[in-house]
Amino acid sequence: MLYRSNQWRQSLKQFPNRVNDIMSGNGETIFNLILSGEIPSHKIYEDDSVFAFLDINPISRGHTLVIPKENSPTMDSLSEDAASSLGQVLPKICKAIMKITGAKDYNIIQNNGENAGQTVPHLHFHIIPKYPNSTHSFVWRPKPIDHSDAGELSKAILEELELARP
Ligand code: AMP
Description:
By secondary structure, the chain is of the alpha+beta class. The chain has four helices and five strands; from the N terminus they run ααβββαββα.
């Protein structure tokens, strides 16, 4: 898929003294450099806990990344406060992008983990406008659910979430 392109890694060459930190998996990512202003970005939104900017390799015009300022690689490790701040601003960011680009449709994609297509281990939402002439697609190959497995699975997850309730 196009959005998994790693062309952005080329941009790291401009920061030879930070490449090791960024590639070593110690929590530092290219998005930290954007947050600290060490590398430029096309910012579209910022508040105390959320930052949004245009993707450097857009799938379509207006392709945006929305990130928490908190350093969390994936959704499951995000704090409730950061999650709540993100959730609060996502609708208005979508609304503004749709208004300005004129797109009526869009996808929100959020990859967690390398095997799921994540290339930058700092949590981010992709907002990807879909225009009438857009040709990009996200291929799903769904199969009918196995109800016997689904019964066990839903029960186990439900119990896990009940236990996690404060
Ligand atoms: P993912 O594959 O879901 O981890 O998405 C990472 C996204 O970050 C890709 O779509 C990249 O094009 C984008 N990206 C990487 N570096 C930059 C950068 N410096 N500025 C804007 N977008 C970037």
